[in-house]
Design a protein that fits this description.
heterodimer; A: alpha/beta; seven-stranded mixed β-sheet; two-stranded antiparallel ribbon; 11 strands; 40% helix; globular; B: mainly alpha; two-stranded antiparallel sheet; 65% helix; elongated
Chain lengths: 411, 317
């Protein structure tokens, strides 16, 4: 059985695990998830847990970086250090607020030139010589301060035949680039997150926007973590559901293969605007429905993991539920069933909520115009199934996009 | 606050929305009177109708209007709850990051600069209702949702399951929230009402001669690359699912062959869209008039800007 790489669990000075034990992952894996996949120019594509090992093996990331002023000054002035290295050092040595700002910046500005600006600024902050205001995470203020340098750097790259992106214009490249998610929320893929994430089509690796909106609802059980979840490995149910939704919305696998330029790799790549809900531990099911109604979602898809007693239970199947008498709901659920039945572990079932739960589920009454579906991916009380969710979300979540496209007729 | 006001009333800042630059004066963001004049005589673009946006900028416009309506509904709820003697914090319940491209950028900067602290509206409301004695708590939920505290407790305890014997389509749709939804409505309502008609348009476009020709070209192009039988993007998904063709080959077909088919498909859709607009001219014109005004209003409503700024600030904390 695979386990999380030991190196990823090692505490590093300044990392969030040391200061916040509730975080489920190390600083480095959090960084990976926050910044997503990287492009060219010295940055490293992120694909799977083994990348944590490879990153940590990199000389610049082995163990705690040297946060002395002299070392940081050398870091800032070194022309041989890549952006990623600068950013990680800045974020490790900087204050937590700086880190959050740079995580947010990494999510908004998906080009290394802009990341480099923030890395420099972060080192300034760590050195106590910051010339950047505390609104460094703000698109407006940072763009205003760095736009000139960004444009110059961008033009240099153009001359080298590379593509680049800066605020105000998009320069297309001859080769399709990995698209960036347009998510400005300062969230991580794992963990309990009290805000939603928005993704939209962007760049040459996404289809053009088709005008359809998808709402992916994540669990909001107040007792998440105490619902019999197996943990060797495994995550609490609220995280299971949201991280699957997050990858379905923004993943980089297609056909089980890491393929960051495939339009079919995730839902926004297929041309949809997609919203991944928060997964707060507050029983906020009505709040989620209201969010979905406000957002104007065309389809409403709920993703949970199932439970039967405690960890060690034998029950294991995929389940797609719909509201009886609602043809759109049934059609949507059927598409998920068709696409997930040979992917998810254990058996496969489809039926109404009254049949499978003995009652009616409010989220199947959201009445999105093209249907609501309630998905129980797998049983988190069954260790092999829970392990599947833990390890196999990345290469399999693209199937959600197929189900949605098939249901809506590839708009 | 002056900075906020200057930004909002000064119109849209040059910014980036979903990868596309936009600026003040975009056709999609014309004043209601301008849009109404444009729609009165000749055929107008469906994109110009709030709620029917497809492009990034039109989606951003629709997000702004929808979020503003969510705010208006919450203000209505707060007033309704106050009249019944209850406190209620306006809870936007809209993805504020979807508003990034319009007048929110400087709002966000301002929020960061103010370093606003505090809890979210949902936390405030949860804390308030949690502290109420049983009888008041029951009255709170009946006023807010039209449901008893007992039924709300059942609902939460049973993970979103509606209490037995209750109509699932009407549970928690009453009270102040239900009235607010009826009074304010949503920019999406007309879009949802016309969904079936729009589906017919999409089907006609997809079955057009132009798309049929494009499909033949696609099939030929893909076959030349070693991927036979391709008739549309669904063929790529099927191949990926079965493993019948390598992902590399699928990607090559996607990059070299599919774009022409997609362009033809979109052209066909836009041509058939004209008929849809004609068939529903009255409703669509009314939609432009009603929601164009709302868009303008949202740009100068400082209460709305404040709520959005707070939400963004909370996201960053």
């Amino acid at each position: 059985m695979r386990t999380a790489p030991r190196a990823c669990l090692a505490p590093v000075r300044g990392n969030l695990v040391a200061s916040n034990p509730d975080r489920e992952e190390t600083y480095w894996c959090c960084l990976r998830n926050a910044l997503g996949s990287f492009g060219r120019n010295g940055l490293v594509p992120i694909a799977g847990p083994s990348h944590c090992d490879r990153l940590l093996a990199h000389r610049s990331l082995r163990g705690p970086p040297n946060c002395s002023k002299a070392a940081l000054s050398r870091e800032r002035s070194s022309s041989r250090r890549g952006t990623f290295q600068r950013l990680t050092v800045a974020m490790t040595c900087g204050r937590e607020r700086t880190e959050k700002a740079y995580l947010a910046a990494g999510r908004r500005f998906h080009h290394h030139t802009q990341l480099m600006s923030h890395a420099h600024a972060g080192l300034d902050t760590a050195l106590g010589t910051s010339t950047v205001s505390t609104s460094v995470g703000s698109m407006g203020s940072v763009a205003g301060q760095t736009r000139g340098s960004e444009r110059r750097a961008c033009m240099k790259q153009l001359l080298r035949g590379l593509s680049c992106l800066f605020i105000g214009a998009v320069v297309s490249s001859a080769v399709a680039e990995p698209a960036a998610a347009h998510d400005d929320a300062n969230t991580t893929r794992y963990g309990i997150v009290d805000t939603g994430d928005n993704f939209a089509p962007f760049g040459t690796s996404d289809d053009g926007a088709n005008g359809f909106r998808v709402f992916l609802s994540s669990p909001r059980h107040a007792d998440s973590g105490s619902r019999g979840e197996c943990m060797n490995p495994g995550r609490q149910e609220n995280v299971n559901g949201r991280q699957w939704n997050w990858m379905a919305a923004n993943g980089n696998y297609f056909g089980g293969v890491y393929s960051p330029s495939s339009h079919g790799r995730n839902i926004h790549g297929r041309g949809y605007n997609v919203r991944v809900s928060r997964n707060s531990k507050d029983n906020g099911y009505l709040d989620t429905i209201t969010n979905s109604q406000n957002y104007g979602s065309h389809v409403h898809v709920v993703t949970h993991t199932n439970a039967n007693g405690g960890c060690g239970n034998a029950a294991s199947y995929f389940l797609a539920m719909y509201r009886g008498g609602h043809a759109n709901d049934q059609g949507l659920a059927q598409r998920f069933y068709n696409n997930m039945r040979n992917v998810a572990p254990g058996g496969e079932n489809i039926g109404t909520d009254t049949t499978w739960t003995g009652g009616t589920l409010a989220e199947l009454g959201r009445n999105a115009p093209y249907g609501d579906a309630y998905i129980e991916l797998a049983f988190h009380t069954n260790q092999p199934a829970q392990s599947w969710v833990y390890y196999e979300t990345d290469p399999n979540s693209w199937n959600y996009g197929v189900a949605i496209d098939e249901h809506l007729g590839y708009p | 606050m002056k900075k906020l006001l200057a930004t909002i009333t000064g119109g849209l800042a040059l910014g980036l929305v979903g990868g596309t630059a936009f600026s003040v004066g975009s056709d999609l963001l014309r004043s209601p009177s301008e849009q109404a004049r444009a729609s009165s005589g000749t055929t107008f673009d469906l994109e110009s109708v709030p709620g029917f946006g497809r492009s990034a900028i039109a989606m951003a416009r629709d997000d702004q209007v929808a979020a503003y309506q969510a705010y208006q509904r919450e203000k209505t709820v707060a007033k309704c709850m106050s009249a019944a003697g209850f406190d209620y914090a306006v809870n936007l319940r809209y993805p504020v990051d979807a508003l990034e491209g319009l007048s929110v950028a400087t709002v966000e900067a301002d929020a960061h600069l103010r370093a606003r602290a505090g809890e979210s509206a949902s936390a405030t409301n949860a804390r308030y209702v949690g502290a109420l004695p049983a009888a008041r708590r029951d009255a709170y939920y009946k006023t807010l949702l039209g449901e008893s505290a007992q039924d709300v407790d059942f609902f939460e305890k049973h993970k979103g399951q509606i209490p037995p014997g209750r109509n699932p389509d009407t549970f928690a749709t009453g009270g102040c929230q239900g009235r607010a939804m009826t009074e304010v409505g949503r920019v999406w309502d007309l879009r949802d009402q016309l969904a079936r008609d729009w589906d017919a348009v999409r089907a006609q476009a997809r079955n057009s001669k132009a798309v049929a020709q494009a499909t033949e070209n696609l099939t030929t192009c893909a076959a030349e690359l070693g991927f036979p039988g391709v008739t549309g993007p669904w063929s790529l998904d099927e191949a990926a699912r079965t493993g019948s063709v390598s992902v590399e080959t699928i990607n090559t077909v996607e990059q070299r062959c599919l774009p022409a088919w997609q362009a033809a498909d979109l052209d066909a859709l836009k041509q058939h869209e004209e008929r849809f607009v004609e068939d529903h001219r009255g409703e669509l014109t009314s939609q432009i008039k009603r929601f164009g005004g709302l868009l303008e209003q949202s740009r100068v409503d400082l209460g709305f800007a404040q709520v959005v700024a707070n939400e963004i600030a909370l996201q960053g904390e």
